[in-house]
Structures are given as C-alpha cells and as structure tokens.
Amino acid sequence: MSNFLNNLKESFGLILDMGLADIVDVLIVAVAVYAVISFVRRNNSMRLAQGILLLLAALVLSTALNLTLTSFILRQVFEIGVLAVIVLFQPEIRRALERVGSYRLFSIFGRGIMGGQVMDKAIMQTVYACEDMSKSRTGALIVFERTNRLNEAMASGTQVDAVVSSELLKNIFYDKSPLHDGAVIIQDGRLAAAGCMLPLSENANLSRDLGMRHRAGIGMSERSDAVVVIVSEETGGISVAEDGLLKRHLSADTFETLLRRELLPEEEAGGAGWLDRLKARKGAHHEKQ
Q1: Tens-digit pLDDT profile for residues 179-212
Q2: How far is residue 5's CA from residue 41's CA, in Å, rounded to a whole number?
Q3: pLDDT tens digits, residue range 169-178?
Q4: Which of 70, 145, 200, 264 could bridge across to 268 with cysteines, CB 3.0–4.6 Å?
Q5: Pairing of strands 238-242, 227-231
Q6: By C-alpha distance, which of 236, 230, 260, 280 is closest to 123?
Q7: Which residue intervals of the chain bear CATH 3.40.1700.10?
Q8: Whole-prediction pTM
C-alpha cells in the first residue's frame, strides 16, 4: 500500500513539474492519436487496426519471453507492413495532405460579424432555391467553402463573384443553362464560381443508386472540409455531404439547421429567433412574387 502511495505521489509530482513544452508535447501526441483513430473509423479500417494491434502485442510478448526467432520475424513483418499500409492507403493519405496544404490558417480570424451576416443570407437563399428545385426536380450541386481553399475546383469553372440569391441559383441550374452540369462554389458567403468540375469519390462502398452528382459531392467532401449540397434530379431529394458522409432526404427545416450549424460561428448558428426567420422567409417569398 505504501509503495502505491509513493508511486502516486511521484506521478502527481511529475504532472506538477510539467512545463509549457511538456504540455504542448502531450497535446500534439493526443491530437495525432485522435487523428489516427478518426482516420481508421472514417475509412472502415477497424479490422486492419485490430490486426496491427494483435501483431504488436505478439511482438511485445515474444520479446518479453526471449523468443528470438519469433520476435525477429515479427519485426520484419512490421518493417514491410509500414510500406504496405502506405500503399494501401495512398489515396486517403494523399487526400489528407491535400486538405492540410489547402488550409487557411487565418481564416477563423478573418470572419467577423459582417462575414457571418453575409453567410447567413447565403444560407437562407440557398434553402429557398433548393426547396424550389426539389419540387421541380432540378438537379443542383452547391459547395460551401470553409477553411480548405477550393481554388483548383474554381479554376475549372466560370468565375462569377456575385451575391447569392435563390433566383441566381435556380437560373444557373436550369437544365438549358450552359453551367447547369457543374457545381457552384460559395466562398465567404458569395457565389464565387459556377460550372465547376468536382473530383468523384473513390469509395467502393457507396450505394449503387447514387449518381454522378452525388459521387462528385461526396468526393469533394472527402478531399476538403467543404459542405456540399446536392439536389437529386431523379427524386428531388436534398442531401448534404460532409467529411465523406452523405445525409439524404433532408426536410427544409433540417437542411437549414444543418447548414447554419456547420457554416456559422457558434454564437450565430442559432441565428435570429424562429419568429424573425419566419418573417424573413415570408418577405423573401413576397419579393419573388
């Protein structure tokens, strides 16, 4: 019992003696471990992770028991395994590096109150447009840029730089429009480009009933932190892709709540009260008429 108490005191002493560099070191390791776990879960690689952990446990056990030949073979397996994992997960690693390379470090500080108001209006106009396009079964693909820059995708389309409005979005995705087959990219609350080509998802586990528009939306969400809105031309269903995951058949209220939660600062995500938003929605419909 006394040994346990002494060890406990020593542990607390080490924690109290930690300096700033030690705290930063622990935080970096914690973030790295969390990133690896998230990567494994997101890519359905739990069985692979379990296999690696079992081999690691076997290596530790064989070393502790002085099983020289077994531990030697396991070390060789691990050395080859590192290269094998890199080859197997090359697309995922490449996407992760692309996201890191396109990260806007100071974007958080650049979003003030005015930026939140502009984005709030862009969200409301997008919701109005998607409601109408859903009813008319007009296909649409709308990308909201966040911290990862989408310059490459924007360069594949036509530069617009306009205020987001429901009428403009519906005109772009009208089936006779020359830009309707591509995606619209909204940057900092403004419609930056239209007719943009997006990378298709390489996920082999996607449902067979998903068309090219949905696969492109999922592909963009896999390669960036963008929020991608898809309106199905076949069913009129509204979907949102984020971080490689697709949320389908959203109601208008759920759709708006999701966009506000993901695109607005926390203090503004709730926005104005529901009565103020209802008045704004009615005012927008009166303007249409």
Answers
A1: 999 999 999 999 999 999 999 987 878 888 889 9
A2: 39
A3: 999 999 899 9
A4: 264
A5: antiparallel
A6: 260
A7: 113-288
A8: 0.63
